[in-house]
Amino acid sequence: MKVQLLGTGSADGWPNAFCTCASCGAARTSGVIRGQTSALIDDRLLIDCGPEVPAAATRHGAELSGIRTLLITHGHPDHVGPAALLFRHWAGRGDPLDVYAPDAVLDQLRPWIGPDDAVHLHPVTAGDRFACDGFVVQALAATHGDATIGEAVLFDVTASDGARLLYATDTGPLSDATIAAVADAAFDVVLLEETFGDFLEHGTQHLDLATFPDQLRRLRAVGAVTDSTDVVAVHLSHHNPVDLYRRLAPWGARVVADGTVLRLGSSAVDARPAAPHRTLVLGGARSGKSRYAESLLAAAEHVTYIATAPPRPGDDEWAARVAEHRTRRPDHWTTVETGDVATVLLDASRGDLLLVDCFTLWLTRVMDDAGAWSGDLTLIDKQIDRLVDAWRATQAQVVAVSNEVGQGVVPATPSGRLFRDTQGRLNAAIARDSDDVVLMVAGRPVPL
Ligand SMILES: [Zn+2]
Ligand SMILES: [Zn+2]
User: Fold this and answer.
1) Which one of 20, 56, 127, 338 has the largest count of C-beta atoms within 10 Å of its C-beta?
2) Which bound ligand lies closest to the C-alpha atom of 79?
3) How far is the CA of 73 from the centre of ligand 1 (A)?
4) Nearest ligand, CA of residue 75?
């Protein structure tokens, strides 16, 4: 199966022509221009055809003369540009074209079909399965659509070579029924919408950077997405961050430029980003480091959260902080409360996912237990060596959080200075054996 993405943008594209935001500015400067989302399969099956799509095909070196099948997801105007049928007529194309779409979309197309055009309209509703031109297509229920545009569907397309694609835009979080309908699909490629980026209060039937990884997690849990699935985010709007590729990589997803050709089973899969084995997330207080570390694992089904905080009986403010962290963690994560992080790291198996939050509380706990605040670091150094050895040896994919404490004024007390210096040494030792190190500043990750 050859898949060419004729567009990867939202209705208004990214950049939005009318917008002066930083994201649109960066897209303009770098020349990464995204138009309405559409996919051309094997040069003869087209999914979605917004008004920009025919011209986009030309710009990206594709021809639409060979199209025999057109699948349209729903009636929003960025997915249906009926004038394409008139352009096809002007080109004298007399060969048949089969169009599969929900009823309301077919109503939009009818006035644009000439009396002698061999265009055949087939109404589609979620759950329908049909064969067309060597493909087998299953329509799935999208979480999208309303009384004004009618039903919205997604398409699960299998080519004659067995390659299988999920075209999943536009939709909000999928229903359990739709997830169940693709169980064990082991798609070769999933084109999954991610319209709204970090703008989470959009109140629309679309995905964003909070719901996208969770959608991916659910698709993984049922075997629809596997380690060899190429997951490409589409329907991207200017609400997305400039460094979107970096945000998607830990979830095993990526972005590609408009016009990109995915050849399933070869280059597409080779290009998949591999999640780093050991990631250290540093930052000051309230820099967003815990939230960022958690987001790196948001697309994973099983995560073990290692809480290193020593118990602090009678400290209400502390209890409130711990409770806030706990409510943010997904229910399907497992929490282990321990000061013995080294043993957890060493006991973990390949494929386990661990989040350690954090090495600063761990160090506090170890120094408390060893009575080291007066300055005898013999026991502490042993513990640090043991932790660093375990960090280096662990089979697990692990993300750890630690505080960057060296940037304020010199602490007034000897114990404060001792802690600052020991924390600095610990961070440097862990960073030396990390595959990825990030410093959080003002909620933004800075790769080191
Ligand atoms: Zn759309
Ligand atoms: Zn839509």
Assistant:
1) 56
2) 1
3) 9
4) 2
Whether the per-residue pLDDT at 273 is higher than 80: the answer is no
Q: Which residue has the tokens 């061999």?
A: 118
User: Rounded to an integer, what distance in angstroms lies between the CA atom of residue 94 and that of residue 96?
Assistant: 6
- The pLDDT value recorded for residue 350 is 87
Helix H segments across 199-312? 211-221, 244-248, 267-270, 289-296
CATH architecture, domain 2-270: 4-Layer Sandwich (3.60)
Interval between CA 67 and ligand 1 midpoint (Å): 22
Q: Are 82 and 111 in contact (CB under 8 A)?
A: yes
Q: Omega of the bond prior to 358 within 30 degrees of 0, cis?
A: yes
In this structure, what token pair is assigned to residue 224?
């629809």
For residue range 196-220, what is the model confidence (pLDDT) as tens digits?
999 999 999 999 999 999 999 999 9
Residue 169's closest CA among 188, 152, 193, 196? Answer: 193
Select from 395, 396, 397, 385 the least CA-distant residue to 430: 385
* pLDDT tens per residue across span 414-444: 999 999 999 999 999 999 999 999 999 999 9
Confirm or reject CATH 3.40.50.300 for domain 278-447, answering yes or no: yes
Distance, CA 76 to ligand 2 centroid (Å)?
5
| C-alpha 195 to ligand 1 mean position (Å) | 9
Q: Which tokens hold the place of 216?
A: 């991916």
Name the phi and psi angles at 357, rounded to 5.
-135, 100
Known catalytic residues? 325
Which residue intervals of the chain bear CATH 3.40.50.300? 278-447
Domain with CATH 3.60.15.10 in the chain: 2-270
Q: What is the pTM of this model?
A: 0.87
Q: What is the mean pLDDT of residues 107-113?
A: 97
Other beta carbons within 10 Å of 425: 15
Residue count of the chain: 448
Q: 261 has which bridge partners?
A: 4
Distance CA 82, CA 425 (A): 64
**In percent, how much of the chain has pLDDT > 70?**
97
DSSP string covering 362-391, please?
HHHHHHHHHTGGGS--HHHHHHHHHHHHHH
Tens-digit pLDDT profile for residues 350-393: 889 999 999 999 999 999 988 888 888 888 999 999 999 999 99
Strand order in the sheet with 353-357: 334-337, 304-307, 353-357, 397-403, 278-283, 436-441, 444-447
Q: Which of 183, 135, 140, 182 lies closest to 163, judged by CA?
A: 135
Distance between Cα 35 and ligand 1 center (Å) = 11
> Two tokens at 329?
């963690």
Q: CB of 164 within 8 A of CB of 188? A: yes
